[in-house]
């Protein structure tokens, strides 16, 4: 009787426990913080007096106002304290409470109610702590405090090792808590968080298999790590609900029922075939919400909502496949800080979308974050806007060893776990430069363990002949492959300010003029806009020429460094890097529009565009070259309707019209195909004198939030009497602000870059400024005036948000819309076949005959060379069948410096005779088509050595992968050295 009564009570108790469902909550923990620079004794104590400390809303780096005012090397470093008092919600008792930081910089000790709960030091990744047993229930007050050190030379306490990526060249040091913080409250039976550091947990993992793009179906898998911290075993039911982008239920399914013992952790799985799926794609950020639900006794005890997308990837034949369509990489190598003036990286989520979506609008499809993992806000932003990502862990410029390699491995592990549900991540980057095969194997094993089904290639820069890396590609050169995809991880390193149109426009900056860089003229780092854009068009053509569809061995594209001007290592006249195709306020330069023209397609051009560089407001008698970027075969220029003839075409997309005399009115460029059909056009007109100021407001979709962290972006233009922007205006604008907001300002060339100044000039007729909300809502008025111009005023309201006891349910970015503008992945092929490769059966030579295969082995780190004597400088290729070869594509060792005088024979008939040009990789040699089976390459003279790209250098100038600085190569003037050779015939 007593035994029966015991079980009855136990069952009743268990039933009571779950009779009222507890809803898991994620709280915005960004409000009500205080900070103080410098060390403070006993600041972790709950009774410490912080009344004099500065009040801030996170995310907030304590030195963020220095962004773009100071050179990266001079960012303030040292000790800073952050403190916050808060209360738990009513009724929270006997629950689990976790604190999640998306990241701090660099190393910090975290205290709760005076007790040390842990340490985090890598300065990059999200991390968390279980603080359940330390917190006091409502209405008692809790205190959290962090002591953070962002010293450039910070050393890991346990190992006394510095972090390789804490680097003064590229990793802007915005110290403190520059990212979001969240509080999670769960039941004692719960799904874990994807925070491996400290918590050692992996969270939820959602992925598709058996993807059928044509039928729009896939098996969706939901795996979740579950932990039971009750004192009794629990029988757990696992349910999954999938909702579409509008919150409508798509399907539901259940997994296995399991028994979880006290303090036991298990992974529960469920899967189902789902039809009518919308696949995530470039410019189509279609996201689903997958709810993973735990039930005990039929009652919901935990529910996690994961926003994710489904897409199919393949990496084969030297190509990148997305949803069964080949895509060539076209995008940017962007600094991970992705910062803005006076606020650094700590921008609201909508502004991350504004910046990242701009890449997509410029027809970029991938962002390669540089050196360190991007913060979660940018990762999620790329999901929404439909921008593919390459995600690094942490690196500087070389492989590591010892403790620094262990740090990199741990960071990659944490980053994969944290971001594996984000569909926009397509590549995991194991190193900013090549790493050893053993290290690559180690990184690959981490991917295979924690993200075996994510459809992501893991590799590194270079790694051209690696058997472990699944992709590769050099920094500056053009690589091709018939196996794994090779794409350039950064190219076109030139710099140029938005302020300078050309030499004929105010302030009449002479092209290339500026301070020396490393005691040498820095022409490439002090460009005018037109020259910077021209260089971009030249560099991209190298990759476009070898794109998929041009042969068996192809190039998979590349990313231009960088997208927006960055507060990092610089070479030009400013104290920040100006390589961006947009400036620091994301105002486009001509390079942005040039890329938009050249990149409009997955591989081949799919929409024709034309862009006239510059403006059409000059002084009388100005004679200048006009440059047009177009996808047309030929471009004609018209001034006031009068033809100026066709432009001189170079590098596929660039058309030059020499010595055009300016005349007030209209300039029009019209692009035609070979048959004379109009494909596209662009028009610019002469604008009248500056007359007034125009202001334009941009905020989050729901307006400016009065949370102390949100910002509003205000564009200021100087326009003529008809409202048209004056492209050569550099008027100084004086602003004033009224209402509950803080002035952040913008950036321009001048004293301290005008950071935080309320007097700031427009550049080329336009600029942008920002204001930041306070925690008080109300009307904000911005006024702008300038000498001789009609003033402007802008008024708007900031919206109040509810924060109670330091907690808010308004999670940053949760309700931002997805960008679906490009639509789903097209079902048609992304390219047409341009030419047919002719296979090489074998090759023979009088010199190094056993190594002739290295000249056609699809490995750019091998070569065939003769012995240095011009008598043996010849090689003969036997084709797999007699062919009418009309092109030879060849990569010659020393490609950027050597010129080889050669002749090419087809079955003994000379079909080419000339000197090979220098290049950044491959050259195309036209041949007289002759039906032949054997093709011979002969050196017919002394080769010469002169670097054709002396201003294009690696970060380490002593390391050149094309061996052009090899002294033995320079001296051996009778050498013929072939890295790769290909033969092509016309499509019949």
UniProtKB/TrEMBL annotation:
Task: Keywords in alphabetical order, please.
Answer: Glycosidase, Hydrolase
* Entry's Gene Ontology BP terms: carbohydrate metabolic process
Q: Name one Pfam family in it.
A: DUF4982
Q: Where is the Glycoside hydrolase family 2 immunoglobulin-like beta-sandwich domain?
A: 212-311
Lineage: superkingdom: Bacteria
| Domain DUF4982, first and last residues per copy | 623-678
SUPFAM superfamilies recorded for this chain? (Trans)glycosidases (SSF51445), beta-Galactosidase/glucuronidase domain (SSF49303), Galactose-binding domain-like (SSF49785)
Residues forming the Beta-mannosidase-like galactose-binding domain are 79-167
The GO molecular function terms of this record are: hydrolase activity, hydrolyzing O-glycosyl compounds
As for family, the record states:
Belongs to the glycosyl hydrolase 2 family.
Q: What protein name applies here?
A: DUF4982 domain-containing protein
Q: Which organism is it from?
A: Flavobacterium hydrocarbonoxydans
